[in-house]
Amino acid sequence: MKHTESLQDFYKMSENKHLLSGENKIIRHFNIFPRWRCSAAKTYIRRDFYRIVLTKGSGILSFLNHKVRIDAPSIFIANKIIPYSWEPLSENQDGWVCLFSSEFLNTTNPEVYPVLNLETIPIYNLDNILQEEFSAFFEKIEEDFKSDYIYKYALLQNYLNLLLHRIQMLGDQVFSTSQMMDAAHRTVFRFLELLEQQFPVQSPEMPLDLKSPQDYARKLNMHVNHLNSSVKKVTGNTSSGLITERIVTEARSLLQNTDWNISEISDALGFEYPSYFTNFLKKHAGASPKELRLSYIL
Which residue ranges does the record assign to the HTH araC/xylS-type domain (predicted)? Predict the structure, then answer.
């Protein structure tokens, strides 16, 4: 059974294939669309991307062992760690969906966005005035997303920052999930939070501190076998597999978005020799660093 849905998985679904434009990259990803353009029902699973949802219509949002019935227009943010599902209760399932990856947000100061805290599910009920305000903002973002403006992705990053700050201004209607987690979920939460804290890599002179499950277990003050079994139980993946996936994602991002040479990227990601980095990407990304960088240019 698959425990985590990636962006690739999301767009492979037949009802979602039309939502991915040719120019929109999976790395540093952003997308926005009306809810009617995708399936309203959402399977209970963890996603490896963020989702901001403006709902118009009734449904039940389930996460961990909690269920929240939503009847009024609302906005909520689903993060990368907590599994969740949406069960529609009304025929009308209008609203908006905004998807984005951690790399797209591109902030060196995540503390300014408590609504993205991996321990919370922010849910806010909206009155008619707020519903109209957020709907108009989503419409404007979609309009510019579809434009030919050469710097539109920089503009979209600014829009996303504004959207997150505007949501935070709504107040403290946030569900803390820390008391809802069992021991395995708490272990995995701490591991994934620590994993995310390693990125983005800021400089070749500041390489990754933690590279292996043993490193993470030591930092978390637990036996590596306990870490591995908890990660396997909750995510269906291995801890080394999740570390590898995150390093591959960061390698792709650095190759695409920096002018660092291959040796510098290799050093930044903690490889002893560039040849080790090359073999690593060939195995896990299907191409060498040079080939990947060229594919982003073409």
Answer: 189-295
Q: What are phi and psi of 107, to 5 degrees?
A: -115, 140
Q: Using one digit for the tens of pLDDT, what is the confidence trace for 1-23?
A: 456 788 888 888 767 777 776 55
Cα 34 to Cα 214: distance, rounded to the nearest angstrom: 44
Alpha carbon separation from 233 to 9, 188, 195 (Å, rounded): 20, 9, 18
* Nearest-5° Cα angle at 40, 105 to 167: 35
Dump pLDDT digits (tens) for 108-154.
566 788 888 777 788 899 999 999 999 999 999 999 999 999 999 99
| Cα 284 versus chain centre, distance | 20
Rounded Cα distance between 214 and 216, Å, is: 5
Report which of 92, 166, 154 is spatially closest to residue 122, judged by C-alpha positions.
166
- Sign of the CA dihedral with 30 first, then 33, 35, and 38 last: negative
d(CA 144, CA 156): 8
- Domains in the chain: ranges and CATH: 4-176 (2.60.120.280), 183-297 (1.10.10.60)
pTM for this prediction? 0.74
Give φ, ψ of 296 to 5 degrees: -80, -25
